[in-house]
Amino acid sequence: MTALLATESLSLRFGGLDALSGVTLEIPELSLFAVIGPNGAGKTSLFNCLTGFYRPSSGSVTFDGHDITRLPAHQVAALGIRRTFQNVRVFPRLSARENVLIGAHLRASASPWGTVFGTPGMRRRERALADEAQHWLDYVGLGDKANVLAADLAYGVRKRLEVARALIARPRVLLLDEPAAGVSSVERDELADVIQRTWESGVTVVIIEHDVELVMQLAKTVAVLDRGRLLVEGEPEAVRNDERVIEAYLGRRRR
Amino acid sequence: MTWSVVVPDIVAGLFLGAFLALVAVGYSMVYGILRLINFAHGDFYMLAAFVSYSLLAVVTVGTKINWGNVVWVGIVTMIAGGVLAMAVERLVYRPMRRAAVLSVMIAALGVSQVLENGVLNIPGWGSNYLPFPVTPPSTGFNVDGIHYTWTQVVIVVIAVVLITAVWWIVNRTMLGTAMRAVAQDRAAATLMGINTDRIISLVFFIGGALAGAAAVTSSLYYGQINYLEGFSLGLQAFTAAVMGGIGNVAGAAVGGLLLGILESVGTGLFGAQWALLFAFGALVLTLWLRPTGLLGERVAQRV
Amino acid sequence: MPRESKDLAAPSEITPTALSDVEQPPASGLNVALSRLHPGLPVALVALGLAAFLPALVQNTYVVSVAMQVEILMCLALGLNFVVGLCGMLDLGFAAFFAIGSYTTGLLSVDSHWPILATVPVAVVASLIGAVFIGTPTLRLRSDYLAVITLGFGEIIQNIVTNLNQTGGPEGISGIAPLSVAGLTINSTAGYFYVFLVLTVLFTWVSYRVRRSRLGRAWLAIREDEDTAHAMGIKVHRFKLYAYMAGSVYGSITGSLYGAAFIAIAPPSFGFSESLLVVMAVAMGGIGSIWGALLGAGVVIASPEIFRQFATARLLVFGFLLVLIMVLRPQGIWPETGLGLERRARSVARSVRGFARPSTRRSGGRAQ
After folding, report:
1. Beta bridge partner(s), residue B85
2. How far is B98 from chain A (nearest CA, A)?
3. Could you give phi then psi for residue A133, rounded to 5 degrees?
4. What secondary structure, in 3-state letters, does chain B show?
5. Which residue of B has its CA nearest to C90?
6. Which of A176, C195, C327, C368 has its CA 20 to 30 A from that of A249?
7. How much is the pTM?
């Protein structure tokens, strides 16, 4: 399988802090890839560099063979890379449906004439889009909450809304930043189900996660970051038992 | 166009700048701590001017200036300005802490209307330009053919002393650290045990007091007061604060000074009607070259 | 939680019956429109009906002219609503576009004897140029800086028209021709009342359509969370410019017709205070909502009129009212999220029910 998303010696510095140091990763197409590591390891920074939110200090990011290192966020999104956020950034004062509709921004009709005068063609397209938004809300189990304001939704529900919003864009790559953080075990299972189904439908999925069980359950490949560096990469079981990983999480054993 | 033509304008601008700086520092501090463009700030200045006017009108006999009176009236006015600012914060802005900034701004506009029209309707005040009861003497000294009065020197010294004191408080004391903490992250500051309400009140007091000082000194300097002068001064002060880098004391001071000089030079070069254009042109240029203002800090944004 | 087959059905494969499981009224245009406009439409239609007969009902020219001013402010507020309400950008210099529209029409009418309707497109183009010129470098600035720049833009435009001889200087321009539409020349206050009524309805309808389009959604996304909007593929800077441009179009068209209605225009009508009036209308009425903008315009114009009995203190009373409204209801009278009447009614009903049947609520197990 070819690498769909890859980094080459990616480094990111904030003043005196090296958030990322020389990270070289290859995320194969159609893989379910997990990035783990202790807090502050640089996982979210990695996502931010992949999606154009941060500009790396050095190194490169390639997508499908093309260099996307310096692309602004909206162009990265246009290429088919979508993400969710660690602190769940849904649009609070908009309804769940409107949130999802915004995810489809690039696919929605932009005709000025249609916008201003509400032509039948425009209305038809908008209705089709609304139907599709409903479909994705159903897909993540929020079908009955389409008209609820995002701010009024529970935390776990908002996380699923974020996923629906990302999926309506029919992305090639979906980056999920700690999807299971702060949710109950029931919600975690539901999220795992959504992630699994999404992956099976042909989307390359990359997750940042702390939840070891979720990672073991879902991921086919795991990469471990620690203090900005890539420590180990491999199959979940192997990584879990790797000494360097244990040391990174738990500290060195006193002999 | 030789240099010397512009010098008198620069000097005049220095004094305008001193008043602007005093008001700008207050504006900037309030903005820094609440992210609020307090449109009423200029009217704190205006009301303070009227208060000092009335106090001096009562105690002044004859035409000889009594500096003792001016001093205590000045102090009382500063306190009055501070108290007024604190009261407005307590009654209007504090209940709106969670509201959208735009709403609070409109509330500030409402306060501004109340203050202006309040003054308009108080007997003895009203809409006319009122001459200040005290006229400072024009004794002074000459440098390079320009006459500077001792009064002008005193005004500049007062402004410098006050602004330096505020700068020192903000940057060199625990209290100032608390202020800056509240400005950056109110919730976290509360968790540190800082009484954010009290800090915010204090910031408003300082802002109001500085406006009061500006009111007394500028009323002395220009000789008259009017109920509409606050709003325009407030706008200029805000412009100055933005130009210098909003949220920091030194920036506001520098911005005020610079704007004063620019307006004065602009008036001299192009006439009073184009001065505003000149000043705003300078502002746009500044923000173009340094988007965070002249002394502004760059804030990194984490996603 | 739906557990479907592993293959993700493409939306086009969803059968119509699946959709009918979800509560939706029959998708005819009228029904959909009615269901969406539910709270306001009947009231609006009634208001529109009353408005249409206002000049006949009230034989008072003064009242009609105040009503016309309300309409003018409504049009301006709808324009500013794109910028401030939907897109979340603080614009304190909206009067600039109003001025550009008025002066373009004024100059072309008085100097070159153009018919008013012909000047409107020119005014629109002029304001668009202004919007692009100012907006392009400045809309990426933080909201506070943007506020000052737009304020400056407003002041500069007013400054320019006050000081240029070509624009009539401090006295402005007088002798602007009346509006002629299809051979009919409009000369009375009542006539312009209807002109601006039509304009208000038109602007409202367009605003409504835009709000429900990709454009409106993009603006809302930008307002709520700019960075995330980027992540949706939205070209944030360009869309901000669109909002500013849309506002400028509304402002300049209103300004054009304003000149025709009042025959003469002068710089004092286009200053910071006027920009603030529009901001007040949007903020008091309800940020982002169309009804809010209309309502706010009404309140802003009507209040000082109603308070005329207080003579010189009327603005004082207005100021108090303004502060009171903003402190008690910062989101505005009729914000996007609705009047909140439904929620209030439901909670009242709940407490009434609770009061009527205390045993079932409090005692838990002891059924009587």
Report:
1. none
2. 15
3. -60, -40
4. CCHHHHHHHHHHHHHHHHHHHHHHHHHHHHHHHHCCCCCCHHHHHHHHHHHHHHHHHHHCCCCCCCHHHHHHHHHHHHHHHHHHHHHHHHHHHHHHCCCCHHHHHHHHHHHHHHHHHHHHHCCCCCCCCEECCCCCCCCEEEECCEEEEHHHHHHHHHHHHHHHHHHHHHHHCHHHHHHHHHHHCHHHHHHCCCCHHHHHHHHHHHHHHHHHHHHHHHHHHHCEECCCHHHHHHHHHHHHHHHHCCCCHHHHHHHHHHHHHHHHHHHHHHCHHHHHHHHHHHHHHHHHHCCCCCCCCCCCCCC
5. B102
6. A176
7. 0.84
Tell me if chain C has a CB within 8 Å of the CB of B1: no
Is residue C236 within 8 A of residue C230, CB to CB? The reply is yes
Query: Is A63 in contact with C193 (CB distance < 8 Å)?
Result: no
- Distance of alpha carbon C1 from alpha carbon A142, whole angstroms: 8
Q: What architecture is domain C62-351? A: Orthogonal Bundle (1.10)
Locate the domains of chain B by residue range.
3-289
Q: Is C143 on the interface with B (CB under 8 A)?
A: yes
> How many other β-carbons are positioned within 10 Å of the β-carbon of residue A141?
19
Shortest alpha-carbon distance between residue A204 and chain C (Å):
14
Is A186 within 8 Å of chain C by CB? no
Q: Is B299 on the interface with A (CB under 8 A)?
A: no
Q: What is the residue-wise DSSP string for C30-57?
A: HHHHHHHHTTTHHHHHHHHHHHHHHHHH
Q: Is A85's CB within 8 Å of B303's CB?
A: yes
Is any Cβ of chain C less than 8 angstroms from the Cβ of B68?
no
CB contact under 8 A, A102 and C29: no
Give the CA radius of gyration of chain A. 19
Using alpha carbons only, what angle is made at residue B188 by residues C330 and B96, rounded to the nearest 5 degrees? 10
Q: Which chain B positions have a beta carbon within 8 Å of C154's beta carbon?
A: none
pLDDT tens track, chain B, 303 positions: 566 677 778 888 888 899 999 999 999 999 888 888 888 999 999 999 999 999 988 887 776 777 888 889 999 999 999 999 999 999 999 999 988 888 898 899 899 989 999 998 888 888 888 888 878 877 778 877 777 888 888 889 999 999 999 999 999 999 999 999 998 888 889 888 899 999 999 999 999 999 999 999 999 888 889 998 888 788 888 888 888 888 789 999 999 999 998 888 888 887 777 777 777 778 778 877 777 778 876 544 333
Instruction: Please report which helix (H) or strand (E) contains residue C244, including its range.
Output: helix C236-262
pLDDT in tens, A180-210: 888 888 888 888 999 999 999 999 999 999 8
Of the candidates B35, B95, B287, the beta carbon closest to that of C141 is on B287
The pLDDT tens digits for C302-351 are 888 888 877 778 888 888 988 999 999 988 888 887 776 666 666 676 66
CATH code, residues B3-289: 1.10.3470
Mark yes or no for CB contact A116/C210 under 8 Å: yes
Q: Of B249, B252, B250, B274, which Cα lies nearest the Cα of B264?
A: B274
Return the number of CB contacts < 8 Å for A and B: 6
Whether residue A110 has pLDDT greater than 50: yes
The complex's ipTM works out to 0.89
Please, what's the b/e burial string for B194-206 (b: 16 or more CB within 10 A of its CB; e: otherwise)?
bebeebbbbbbbb
Q: Strand, coil or helix: what is C92?
A: coil
As a whole number of Å, the CA-based R_g of chain B is: 19
Q: How far, in Å, CA of B108 to CA of A242, rounded?
A: 61
Which candidate, B140, B30, B48, places its Cα nearest to that of B93?
B30
Q: Can you tell me the distance from the alpha carbon of C325 to that of B92, in angstroms, rounded to the nearest whole number?
A: 11
The Cα C283–Cα C292 span in angstroms is 8
Strand partners for A176 = A207
| Residue B303 contacts A, CB cutoff 8 Å | yes
